Amino acid sequence: MKKKSSFTQSMKAVMWGFLGVRKKSGLQEDVASLSFVHIIIAGVIGALIFMTILLLIVKTVVSH
User: Fold this and answer.
1) If residue 32 lies in a helix (H) or strand (E), which one and from where to where?
2) Residue 56: CB partners within 8 Å, gap ≥ 6?
3) What is the largest CA-CA distance in the chain?
């Protein structure tokens, strides 16, 4: 039985993917249960957050 996932579960899966510390069993569970649309949206949001953090770090370092 396929279980539907929430957007927060998709966001967690994408964040673990960004860190690169995902177990193979966790990946297989995600593939079976996560929505493709949720993964795409979570990936875009995660990339925007990552880029914003990098820009803030660079701005802070350059300004000093």
Assistant:
1) helix 24-33
2) none
3) 56
Each residue's pLDDT tens digit, 7-50: 888 888 888 888 887 777 777 777 778 888 888 999 999 999 99
Sequence ranges of the domains in the chain: 7-63
Q: What is the residue whose two structure tokens read 């795409």?
A: 40
What amino acid is encoded at 59 in this protein?
K
Per the confidence metrics, is the pTM higher than 0.90? no
The distance of Cα 29 from the centroid of its chain, to the nearest Å, equals 16
Cα(16)–Cα(24) distance, rounded to whole angstroms? Answer: 12
Distance CA 59, CA 29 (A): 39
Residues 18, 46 contacting (CB under 8 angstroms):
yes
Among residues 1, 25, 54, which one has the least CA distance to residue 13?
Answer: 25
